[in-house]
């Protein structure tokens, strides 16, 4: 499946001109639902066709966004994409911007589990790269919760190969990673806090 290649290339050029090489666009959505939808549509719509996308990865990303609550997020989240040691990575920074401690199950953090985030990877010609099936489950209820106090930041790395099929990934090429993290806190993630979203630029090794 392909989306508008001209717009994708324009976004890539804008990222390089703005000096955001190796950095995320740092979009953080902490507003009501209609603004969250506006954000993701503004990120993806420039290279979207008028017809509905058949790709299951894109469909799942949008279904995740539509299922969110309307609450303001208690965290600030950024994701920076980079290639290191042959790995394609998303490095996350999660900061508690609320006035109360927040408790997360380790698997609920963006890097804690293959399904912790939803994302798609786009090439400059508008192709959505296919995902690989996950054949394992890292979630374990015996792992202790992690508490983030107000103002505290946690850092972690998500390995894109957890879901991304590496064989079709082009070498020495630009990719656009659109991600969404469903923020859940409390015992076993019972408290729905909303969804954080972002867009990151990545250049693959040759």
Structure write-up:
With 206 residues, this protein is α+β, with helices and mostly antiparallel strands. The protein has helices spanning 5-17, 33-44, 56-66; strands spanning 75-84, 87-96, 102-104, 117-123, 146-148, 153-159, 174-185, 191-203. The protein has a single domain (5-48, 55-203), classed as Immunoglobulin-like. The protein contains three helices and eight strands, in the order αααββββββββ. It has a three-stranded antiparallel beta sheet with strand order 1-2-6, with no helix packed on it. Strands 4-7-8 form a three-stranded antiparallel beta sheet. A two-stranded antiparallel sheet has the order 3-5. The two termini are 24 Å apart.
Major beta sheet summary? 3 strands, antiparallel
Give the low-pLDDT segments: 19-42, 44-54
* Count of the domains: 1
CATH names the topology as: Immunoglobulin-like
The assigned CATH architecture is Sandwich
Strand order of the largest sheet: 1-2-6
| Strand segment tally | 8
Q: In terms of topology, how is this protein built?
A:
Blueprint: H1 5-17, H2 33-44, H3 56-66, E1 75-84, E2 87-96, E3 102-104, E4 117-123, E5 146-148, E6 153-159, E7 174-185, E8 191-203
Antiparallel strand pairs: 1-2, 2-6, 3-5, 4-7, 7-8
